[in-house]
Amino acid sequence: MILSNIHTILNTFNSISLDDMNAVKLMQRTDTKFIFHANQLAHILELTKTDYSVLEINNTRISDYQTLYYDTSDFGLYQAHLHGKLNRYKVRYRNYINSHTGNLEVKFKSNKGKTIKSRLKASEPSLAWNSEAIQFIKTLTPFDPATLVPSLWVNYSRITLVNLNTKERLTFDLHIEFINGTNTKKLHPLIIAEVKKEKAKGSPFFLIMKHLAIKEVSLSKYGMAMAYTEPTIKTNRFKETLRSIKKITDYDFITN
What does the DSSP 8-state code read for residue 31? Predict the structure, then answer.
């Protein structure tokens, strides 16, 4: 993917500031995801121009994210997703590099298909929880914070678009990489697009994906990261999506 082309296209969008985007936080929402090769991104961005503005932070329209996930020693949070458990959780620290901010986050996926995200401001990831973080995790999850330890990093760059007419955000994640100890996996040919809105229907981006014959996928970046970097973990529930990723990137996952 030639980033100069992407920057050129993004510069033709109307921009929105981080403060303005606060009206579209969507802390309770539905998420719909798509994957495709990076060489399609420029064309897809062109198709979105009439319906979306782009988030700009400190004169930058592509933002860098670093995310540290926490899990139990037996990967209980990952296992809940692997086995399709309803009402499941993710606990993570996210560093928003361009805005120089960070949050401890709890993400809850309900049995109604809703995603509920809660945040606690934090300047750096925790290796030992402070009292505020302990209370935050205890209030929002059934886990003992003492059992949650750093698992792996998921890093990427993100383009965030905001619908001009409805309460909807559309993100494109690129330059995706997973870091698990000394094991690093880069999936740079892969783009993950995600529509975030209060209801699952009615996005102009769905029409674009239908026109390009790109189908919705069930996908978790944490689940992907585990599948690509953790040799001891089972991945059977994710294998269909992982095979789709392999067709796009030609990168294989660890088979278990």
Answer: E
Tokens at 202, concatenated:
């009615």
Write out the DSSP string of 93-156.
EEEETTTTEEEEEEEEE-TTS-EEEEEEE-SS--SS--HHHHHHHHHH-SS-GGG-EEEEEEEE
Give whole-number Cα distances, 48 to 10, 24, 29, 163, 171, in Å.
10, 18, 21, 9, 12
| Burial of residue 100, with CB atoms counted within 10 A of its CB: 0-12 exposed, 13-18 middle, 19 or more buried | exposed
Q: What token pair was written down for 221?
A: 């970046």
Domain range holding 116? 3-249
Q: What's the domain count of the chain?
A: 1
Tell me if 234 is assigned to some domain.
yes
For residue 215, the SS3 value is coil
Q: Give the model confidence (pLDDT) of 101-135 as tens digits.
A: 999 999 998 887 788 899 999 989 988 899 999 99
Bridge partner residues of 157 (DSSP): 64, 174
Q: Considering the entire predicted model, what is its pTM?
A: 0.92
